[in-house]
Amino acid sequence: MATFSCRVQFLDDRDPFANTNFPEPTRPPNYPFLDNVPLISQIAGIHRLLEAPHRLEDCALQIYRYHSGAQADFGTYLDLESTLDEQADELEGFKDQ
């Protein structure tokens, strides 16, 4: 099975008035996504790994590429019902890094 390994973080956005919304944890762990398995089947593993405070049904996945400095490329939100293979266009430019 092909995998796509990347670092994973969450944004604690439960309080809309908080001004300290930074990605957590500060040292993001790697997670090996299976390319041909729907993301909805994999998100529970990510949730457990990160010990995120959100309810699982409130979670979403967004691709994000960090560059040295403080610059970042925010991608689109991924469709949890689809596999990474089915969303190859969304990951263009992210997988090769």
From TrEMBL:
Among InterPro entries, the record links this protein to: ARM-like (IPR011989), FHOD1_GBD_N (IPR041387)
A Gene Ontology molecular function term of the record:
actin filament binding
Task: List GO BP terms, alphabetically.
Answer: cortical actin cytoskeleton organization
> Which residue range or ranges hold the FHOD1 N-terminal GTPase-binding domain?
6-96
Q: Name one GO cellular component term.
A: cytoplasm
Give one Pfam hit by family name: Formin_GBD_N
Return the PANTHER family for the record. Answer: FORMIN HOMOLOGY 2 DOMAIN CONTAINING, ISOFORM I
- The molecule here is called FH1/FH2 domain-containing protein 3
| Species this protein is from | Elysia marginata
The record lists the lineage as:
Eukaryota, Metazoa, Spiralia, Lophotrochozoa, Mollusca
